[in-house]
Amino acid sequence: MSDQMQSERARPEAIKAVPVRHPGRWVTIAVLAVLTAMFIHMLVSNDNFRWSFIFSSYAEGKRGVMFTGPVLQGLWGTILLTVFAMLIGIVLGIVIAIMRLSDNPILSRVAWVYTWFFRAVPRLVLAILFGNLNILWSRVGFGLPFDKQIGQLFGIDNFNGQFYSIKASDLLAGFVAGMLALGLSEAAYMAEIVRAGIQSIDPGQAEAAVALGLSRGQVLRRVVLPQAMRVIVPPTGNEVIAMVKDTSLVAFVPVTGELFFQLQAVSARTFIVLPVLVAAVIWYLILCSVLMVGQFFLERHFSRGYGTASKAKRRLRNIEMEQGGRITVEGGATP
After folding, report:
1. Residues 172/134, Cβ–Cβ less than 8 Å
2. What are the distances in angstroms from CA 3 to CA 7, 8, 220?
3. Smallest Cα–Cα separation from 266: which of 46, 73, 48, 76?
4. How does pLDDT run across 264-317, given as a tens digit for each residue?
5. Per-position DSSP letters for 81-101, written without gaps between them
6. Which of 30, 141, 147, 203 has a CA-to-CA distance to 318 between 20 and 30 Å?
7. pTM
């Protein structure tokens, strides 16, 4: 009897779990709900937004300002400008990153100077600068360097060693000037992104690949860059999204076939400012949202094998190898 009483006394009482209170969360949710309701009410009730001007008709017989012909052409120009500028930035950025990591001090320092200059100068200043570079030269072409000086050395005053040339005012203006300004600036940022990605890979892998007989180019293409993409892709996606927004800067070059320039032209003709700016915001939101979705899937593709689930699977495989067979769970099933 005494033993039974002692066992009953020793038995612990049932734990009464009390959920943790989070009053701050509910207060925050309530504040956010009120602010959201106020914002939606402002969008719906404030006539100064002029949604019909934006979506349906901004003049008699004309569609909404977002869907007029010039604005859609400007949208296409923005997309092309983003694509070409990023192509220049990515290709040139890879080259500069390799130069920066080179053992040759001259190549490394030249790459450093390039990144220093284009990261230090604002893109708006670069865009306007490139739009006025035609002041320096009358023509731009390809051919022998110092052709006039060589001709004067041999007594030929009108010697022309250029194989192809074009008027500088035709080349360094408009779309090309904006594309070069954005692309060369982007190359400096991409060089740092690629360099960080390459340096994130264990040097022992490159050394092992070289020991197996691969050249340095093959090591870079087949061993280093495929693994570095997990580090390179997320900031590159951010740079693409930033480039879409930075294309609006070339409206000051000016690049007439660009979205923000065309919307500003509508604002100048109609003397209506806010609805036109809202239309620009909507178009940039659409473009950037599409790119964000693409960035999500790209990141998921290149991060395969690096997540928590993949680490758990690798840990299970290691345990299986140690035990010499597959792991079975309760019920005879295998994970």
Report:
1. yes
2. 6, 9, 76
3. 73
4. 998 998 888 999 999 999 999 999 999 999 999 988 888 776 655 555 566 656
5. HHHHHHHHHHHHHHHHHHHHT
6. 203
7. 0.80
